[in-house]
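Q: Is it fine to ask for two folds in a single conversation?
A: Yes, each is treated on its own. Send the first.
Q: Here.
A: Result:
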Amino acid sequence: TIEKLKELHERYESNEEIAIRYANGQLNLTAEQSQEERGQSVAKLQELHEQYESNEEIAIEYAKGLFNLIVEQSQEERKQTIEKLKELHERYESNEEIAIQYASGLFILTMGRSLEECRQCIIKLRDLHERFHDSEKLVEWYMNSLVNFSLAQDTEEDVRRTIQESQKILDQYPDNIEIQLSYTQTWFNLTLVQSMEALQQTVLELREYLAQHPKANEGFQLALDEYLEEHPDHTERYSLLRIKV
């Protein structure tokens, strides 16, 4: 089917509507391709973008393809792909969908990275949030990145500052379950740098919040399961967080 779209595009290359459909087909391919094939499809999306550089719909498909490419890349390859997303964002700076793809890429860069690398990504995400402050999807990526940032931090004071940043966002979107969940995970990360006495107080406060937000608690319990599988010796420490869904 994509080959037929390609033939139509080559026959009517001045027709942008056909080019958009072809770009959409290439994007759909990236969802289930091998990494090598995915790279080839994204290269074709890049060609379409360069051919129709003023067409934002094609630029969006290209940005989405770049994000799909990031998932299985090495860290160095990811940085190069993020740079392309950054260039797209700067070129179409008012386009919210491209900004969301850029934010999602920055989130992936914060996973398992050093404190300084996370901090640089958070600065960029903060700027994106300030520019698109009404974008709920973008702010979810920002909140998820704050979870990773708090995990990389090693002092209680630093993690508390990150929690304050999360709290401000939560206040803006108090009913968003994904944001509630990210907030609780950032709060949990605080316990990783606390003394046992301080940890117990945080656990009590977190338990109260989870009891009041059952939907966020569902996701939190799954994340806690994963954590305790890796750290079974901490089971007793977090027993109070075992709240039935």
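Q: Second one now.
A: Result:
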Amino acid sequence: ALRDLGRLEEAITHYEQAIAIMPNYAEAHSSLGNVLQELGRPKEAIAHHKQAIAVRPDYAEAHSNLGNALKELGRPEEAIAHYEQALAIQPDFAMAHYNLGISLDELGRPKEAIKRYEQALAIKPDYAEAHNNVGNALDELGRQEEAITHYEQALAIRPDYAEAHRNLTKIKPKQEQVSTIEKLLKSPSLSETDAIHYHFALGNIYNDVKTFNKAFKHYDKANTLKRRAITYDSQEYTAYVDRLIEAYSRDYFEKITACGSDSELPVFIVGMPRSGTSLVEQIISSHPLVYGAGELASFGCFEESIAEQFKSSDTYPECMALCNESITLDFSKKYLKELRNHSLDAKRITDKMPVNFARIGLIKTLFPIARTIHCQRNALDTCTSNFMNYFAVGNEYSFDLSELGHYYLDYERLMAHWNSLFPSEILGVQYEELVMNQEKVSRQLIEYIGLEWDDRCLDFHKTRRAIQTASVTQVRQKMYQGGSDEWRKYEKHLGSMLEILRDF
């Protein structure tokens, strides 16, 4: 009851008291795990779900809940194993089918995900969330009209489904949605999470009809609410960049020359979100010898686990001072295995996780000769586009204009450091040049990754592959000649960010 009221800390107290009275109370362990996960404590949640399963191995719900916690920690393959266990116990468990679909989608397998969502819908036809996620997977596959149908079905079942409203406006903004959403925003039971989706949806609709003042008002409201719900410290991130620069020094790389893998399989595409990373990956992956794996969480997980491997009291990145050949080969083998799970025969596999720009030191440690492509775009266009897009997780810096500006400065500072350490090794691609000189830049990309030119790279919009980013619609079309100086539509509202980025 306390959990349903949002009084999560009090709920924890009572679950813990129940467990103190009856240590083998499986339901209490699993429920406690769910609350801990809601509070952003998935590692603690995992321990309780495992305890529930130890007590009751046939507890399908606990297996599904454990899968959710593992998925949140970026361990989708382990999550899938537990969803499958839940379904082996209870084949008609609609939520487990649904959650399995989410994990498959996160691994870049949207066709398999759709089948799981459809199984959930066969069991529970009014499962609005499953319709919404079928829409997301179809959108990734470039099947927008079918995606729209599923978003509309989700809204027919749940007219107040905020996320489905926002998703629909990404593909097909409708003016008639405005009055509906405005009424929903006045609901006395409105949650902040729903309000965020509604305001982003209204921002998308007004942006589509070029009513930019109204659009910004809603984007600003959405970001303000989102910022209130997350923890982020701009000064702390600046200090972290200082630590990266100190840890990954010239001396460090001189000491580890014999470490790492000599594989050329990975191609890392990095940069700020909304800087053209999806477009670059789409061009490269249109080559028949390249597989585009999308945004992989591997290097973020490596940062978390590498200190444990070193058995060091230092956290990352300071623990990298203990780097040795054995550990670098262990982590590089794990990563190559993950890449091969995506494609067994590709000559190059791209990892388009933008924030890997902060992990170039670790990338160069594990894969000294692998290629890294740095995507760049006008700073103000990049940051404005970040502010206008909803990010479910990550990108915590993007919900406040001042913090967004400071993050961009730290990103530029860190990239300058990597370029000074590895001159001419990181290929810089300017978005504006790419759209103006498509063939020239595309040929440079293919030459850089060590492959022969293929004309299919010019027809990138015809390549059918899953795309999971906000750029999905753009990369399904021929090269878009606009996109420059878009920030000027919102110039009068960008005061603090403009001041911070005045030199860009």
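Q: Anything structural to flag on that second result?
A: Two points. The first helix runs from residue 8 to 21. The CA atoms of residues 162 and 198 lie 6 Å apart.
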